[in-house]
Amino acid sequence: MDNDEDWNAFLRDHPIFSLPKSVSGPTGKGNNSLELSINTLHHFTDLDPSEDAPTPSGRRQVMVIKDADLIVAAGSEIRIASLGDSKLHKDSPKSYKTLHTPNITFEIHSIALNPNAKLLVVAGAFQVAVIVLPRPGFMKLVPQVVDCKSIQIGQYNHASNSAAPIAKVEWHPWGEGGTTLLVMTTDGKLREYDISVDTEEPQQVLSFVPEKRMNSFIAEDASEREVASFTLGKGHADWGPLSVYALMRSGDIYAICPYMPKNASIPSSYIHALECFVHAKQEFLSHSVINASTSLSNLYDYQHKYVSALLKQLPSGTAFPASSQFFVLHPPTTIKGSPIRQGPFLLQPSPKLLDGSEGGDATDLVYLTFGTPSADEEDEGKTERLGVVLITYRDGKVDVCLDVEKVEAKWEHRQNNDLPMLAVYETIDLGVISMLKKVTSTPSGPSILDLVDGNHPVFLRDPIQEETVYVYHAFGVHALQLGGLLQTLAAALRDDSSNAGDDDLTSAVEKSGGTTVLPILTTFSVERKCSNPVIGVAIPNDVYLTYSIFILTSAMRVVCFPLTLRSELDSANEPALLAVSQTKDDFAKSLSQSVSTPLDGPPAYVSLLTEPFELPAVLARQNGLPSNPILALPPAPQDAKSELQLTPDTLRYLGTTFERFMNQIREVQLAYKAAQRRAELQRQEFKRQQETCKEMLELIDRLHTSRQATTRAKVADTQEAQKDLLRKEERILRLLTKTASPELSEHETKWFQELKRLQEEVIGAGRYDADSLEARTALLRRDLNRLLPNLRELHEKEERLKKKLAEFHQSLGVSQAFEFGERSNAERSKISRLETDIQRLAERLDMSLGRPPALHETYKS
């Protein structure tokens, strides 16, 4: 689709967004059931298993995008349409296909694609099913209904009347073949299903809520035993990818580590990096000055045992520098004991409460890491370990926490009792409470603030820009941009690692601007005091579709916003620019101290543009989102008047909106004037630079023509004058020497005599002096040349003998060589005694004997 076109115009009347029959049909509930108001609040909070009403967790995600296909769940129906075909054939009628899944009869509340985008999980309030998606080209089929295979998941655990409601479903990214499905229920049971193995019985079950003991009483709230959501940890060389975090409705966070799917596909580089991480922990503990506790040492030993069991499953040759590959691994069976539940996490300092709110229930959490492995891993390695945990609540509060102390693998009876900790960086207010407080409630009726009980904010990561997270809820959508926060923290961590200054790190953290919050959509009607909750948000991740965000409300109204795709160069330069700006003053100070004083000459050129131009904040829309939230109000009833009813609330809302627009218009005008002044200044600077450049070109031309000939003549005259001065200087020096000392001194005479004696000793008194050092050296050289061939021959014979002896010894065993040595020593002693007897007999007979042969010659013979 062209940039000038808008997805809103194309999808506004698309039939895929028609209301389901359960709402618009003759026996439907009507459009009012889709609104969140005081009258319909009980539908969003009460639990009725017979009707399969909205889930107690309130999580809704009924729209996903697979490549260029749009998938929408309406009631119990799955609809799919090709946006790519619609992009190519704009004049063709708009249509969609319905997936025929007869065993899915429940109301679908959330859907999710598996990692290879071939399977689709659909979840209702209590039931879960998996659909095998059709192959590409389904839109070319004639029938409007496409048959698809669908499978019920864990009917015994999730389809019975006594089953716990579904809190969240998610595919594990490291499941073999992308078939590992995680299902979390509100009772704290996380069940792992492998679709390719067994769809009824889970492969593993993790429990985040301990069982209550019989005949025991514990003073705890029910929200402390109800799970609201869960997420998987992240990391590159730690226990992050093997961690699972669970969020209770009370706001408590628990973690279980290690956890990996029963049939996992894990990159080999991660296993080797984890081994290095555990080994470094053990080395640090062994070299630590402080005596470590026995439990900590046993814990690291157990971690090393776990990692070693994983390494044994990898084939040989996977270590560095071999390229990383995915291999099928299984949890070690040699590890005794189950991973223990760690927590609750200590939130330090304690998060703040919003004004006008007593604190709502927690609804969702997400774990984010920034910086992916690339060619420049050395620089990114400093920040990729920085994890960020976001927690959202019903009242619109979002806590931004830093995971400075990541959880590690712990097992039962092999851990210390220290609670993990999350550093609370800031608390964000989405403005839900303040928005509802501006609406006047009826004196005799319930408070409008009760609508917060039906709110359920949900996080959605941006698949392309990892520093952006979207929060959609019952009153709209907000975008959270953590880029500036993370860049400041990354620069502070780099400075802290190089300078080791805690004060600099603290000051850098305090100066950071925090998270940028942008409201992009509002669904609350001040006039009717109701809202259509957002039930789906999707962002295309396909090169054939425009980078944008699709938002779907409960009234099946879709709103699209084009997004701006930031280049990798801009993202890579921002940390460097931030570091340069922080050290600019110090660099200028050191530069002024190190540079010497310039020589006298023409003054340096001073530009009119002393400071770089900074785009005003009102015009800086790097992500392309609107500066004001778009209204997506519920449709008015058919019997209501089309005119706007003026009430104090609507007048107050219009006044506030008008004031905000006027302030933005004023800021835009000021930004326009600032841009005009800057453009005029740049034009003046450009004119000055042109004039200066013209003067420089004229000067260069003069230097190349007339000035060059004159300068060469002056240089030649100077060289001739210099030669005359050198000749005069030499004559004067000789005259001064003769005048000062006409005869040699006593020491000079002795020195010249000693030099003459040394010359005669080295060269000789005459040509045929045989006692000179030169003649003796020549004689030695001739003798050496005569002996060298014999020496080389002896050396070669010795090397051949050593080689034969080495081969002979290698052919013998240890016992044979030892026995051979003993016999050789005995024979040598006999030969020695025989030689002694022969010499004694020759002395008696007055006979002379020659030199006895050498030992190695005897062996050779």
TrEMBL record:
Coiled coil: 658-692, 791-844
Record's keyword terms, sorted: Coiled coil, mRNA transport, Nuclear pore complex, Nucleus, Protein transport, Translocation, Transport
Keyword Transport: yes
Pfam families: Nup88 (PF10168)
Subcellular location: Nucleus, Nuclear pore complex
The keyword Cytoplasm appears for this protein: no
Lineage top rank: taxon: Eukaryota
PANTHER family: NUCLEAR PORE COMPLEX PROTEIN NUP88, NUCLEOPORIN NUP84-RELATED
Annotated protein name in UniProt: Nucleoporin nup82
Organism (species): Somion occarium
